């Protein structure tokens, strides 16, 4: 009813809107005409004239606007629907706004980021403290605390691995806290592994050198190797530290016996050659020496039973035999002591006092 009662107004309004849109779209272009038809209807012409009058009369300069400038403001895709002319000023305004508000907005983003980092640090403070605690324990030679902290670090790593494995099995995405926990734990575990690797390398060297370590020998700690073996077992090893210690002990004793015997052999040989270059004793002196050796009582023996050089030779030989074959402080005594230590490992008596290693390994 409303359209029927205002039909003429409705037609004029629609024609005006169509005409304005057509002019804006085809601005700067010649209007298309068909043969035998006028370019606009009566209503369209009036509406267009009415629009131009309402917009104000065109000045001579506006009438002479170049065709390229008119097309710049046309509602077409080529002119970006009329905003191409103000695109450059908009870009400049955006740059100025970024210069003015960029630092403030960036500071807010950094603040939020720092808050998130602080919350993560507070939540996983124990993970961040493990690396420094292990480093301090190594410097203080506090092996008990070192093992405790390493065990705690392994627990963190196992928990993070369980979260990742569960996400893979269930094919579910990780939450932000879980992602943070895995990343933090991975970095911590990498640092701890590097520290423990270097520490174990040093312990292996000390274990192989316990037989010659002056510090251990001066402190009179015969069981120092058991302490080092226990540390390696608790930290986890790929080789048996007991077997390594036994092999190092064997090599040490073997080399020591060779060096000692060679040193005394050279001394005795030098003295023997010197005696060989001397004049041979007379038969009378030889008979006197033999009678002196056969005497039963010490009172019957003369003060000097042989020449000084010969006596020195036999004294050196006697010393060499004592060093090599004495059970108390000699090389043979060290061999017996080493075998007793090996036998205690073979029987399994010492293993009862040692830790079982990580996960009973």
UniProtKB/TrEMBL annotation:
Instruction: Show the ranges annotated as biased composition (Polar residues).
Output: 46-65
User: Record keywords: Transport included?
Assistant: yes
Annotated stretches, region: Disordered: 23-76
Q: Where is the composition biased (Basic and acidic residues)?
A: 67-76
Top-level taxon: Eukaryota
Query: Basic residues composition bias: which ranges?
Result: 36-45
Key words, A-Z? Exocytosis, Protein transport, Transport
Q: Name one Pfam family in it.
A: Sec5
* Domain (Exocyst complex component EXOC2/Sec5 N-terminal): residue spans on this chain: 2-352
Record keywords: Transport included?
yes
Task: Cite the record's note on assembly.
Answer: Component of the exocyst complex.
Protein's job: Component of the exocyst complex involved in the docking of exocytic vesicles with fusion sites on the plasma membrane.
PANTHER family the record matches: EXOCYST COMPLEX COMPONENT 2, EXOCYST COMPLEX COMPONENT SEC5
Q: Member of which family? A: Belongs to the SEC5 family.
Q: What is this protein called?
A: Exocyst complex component SEC5
Its source organism is Cryomyces antarcticus
Gene name linked to the record? SEC5_2
């Amino acid at each position: 009813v409303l359209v029927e009662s205002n039909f003429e107004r409705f037609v004029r309004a629609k024609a005006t809107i169509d005409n304005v849109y057509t002019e804006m779209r085809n601005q700067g272009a010649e209007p298309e005409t068909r043969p035998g038809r006028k370019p606009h209807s009566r209503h369209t012409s009036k509406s267009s004239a009415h629009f131009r009058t309402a917009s104000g009369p065109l000045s001579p300069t506006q009438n002479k606007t170049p065709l390229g400038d008119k097309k710049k403001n046309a509602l077409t895709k080529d002119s970006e629907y009329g905003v191409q002319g103000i695109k450059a000023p908009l870009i400049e305004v955006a740059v100025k706004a970024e210069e003015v508000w960029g630092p403030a907005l960036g500071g807010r983003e950094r603040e939020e980021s720092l808050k998130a980092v602080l919350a993560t640090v507070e939540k996983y403070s124990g993970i961040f403290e493990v690396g420094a605690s292990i480093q301090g324990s190594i410097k203080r030679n506090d092996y008990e605390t070192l093992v405790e902290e390493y065990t705690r670090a392994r627990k963190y790593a196992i928990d993070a691995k369980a979260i990742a494995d569960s996400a893979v099995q269930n094919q579910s995405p990780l939450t932000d806290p879980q992602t943070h926990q895995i990343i933090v734990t991975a970095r911590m575990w990498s640092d701890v592994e590097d520290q423990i690797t270097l520490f174990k390398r040093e312990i292996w060297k000390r274990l192989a050198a316990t037989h010659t370590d002056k510090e251990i020998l001066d402190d009179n700690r015969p069981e120092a190797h058991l302490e080092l073996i226990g540390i390696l077992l608790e930290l986890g090893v790929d080789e048996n530290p007991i077997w390594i210690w036994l092999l190092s002990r064997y090599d040490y004793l073997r080399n020591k016996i060779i060096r000692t015997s060679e040193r005394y052999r050279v001394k005795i040989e030098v003295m023997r050659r010197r005696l060989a270059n001397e004049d041979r004793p007379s038969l009378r002196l030889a008979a006197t020496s033999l009678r002196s050796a056969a005497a039963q009582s010490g009172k019957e023996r003369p003060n000097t039973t042989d020449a000084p050089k010969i006596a020195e030779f036999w004294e050196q030989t006697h010393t060499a035999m004592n060093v090599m074959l004495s059970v108390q402080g000699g090389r043979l005594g060290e061999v017996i002591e080493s075998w007793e230590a090996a036998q205690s490992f073979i029987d399994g008596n010492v293993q009862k006092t040692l830790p079982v290693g990580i996960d009973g390994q």
